[in-house]
């Protein structure tokens, strides 16, 4: 039931998760896919078809930088946060926190009804 785990309401969440996870260390795309799954206790499972477009968009907009590195005979592209990406993360995280508080308030009120 992937639909239950990833409702359409979460459209901006991949960007938030990618920025947050890249805040502390650089990662390559598939590593981010796995990190998102692990960090959310498998509640949010995003495929490479979601993560890579987000990475490319964030890089185009200057929120991320990338570097190519050969690893085990293969080439990987590692992404890291730029100062602009840090500012963007702060803005998105603040908005998300405000939305989460609002939803939590409604859920709390509905329990008392």
TrEMBL record:
Gene3D superfamilies: Winged helix-like DNA-binding domain superfamily/Winged helix DNA-binding domain
Pfam family membership, one: PadR
Domain Transcription regulator PadR N-terminal: 18-90
Protein name per Swiss-Prot or TrEMBL: PadR family transcriptional regulator
Species per Swiss-Prot/TrEMBL record: Paradevosia shaoguanensis
């Amino acid at each position: 039931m992937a639909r239950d785990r990833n409702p359409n309401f979460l459209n901006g969440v991949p960007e938030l998760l990618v920025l947050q996870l890249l805040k502390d260390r650089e990662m390559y795309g598939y590593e981010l896919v796995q990190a998102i799954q692990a960090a959310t206790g498998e509640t949010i499972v995003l495929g490479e078809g979601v993560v890579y477009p987000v990475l490319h968009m964030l890089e185009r907009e200057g929120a991320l930088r990338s570097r190519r590195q050969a690893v085990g005979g293969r080439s990987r592209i590692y992404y890291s946060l730029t100062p602009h990406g840090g500012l963007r993360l702060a803005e998105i995280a603040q908005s998300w926190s405000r939305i989460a508080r609002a939803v939590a308030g409604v859920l709390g009120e509905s329990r008392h009804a």
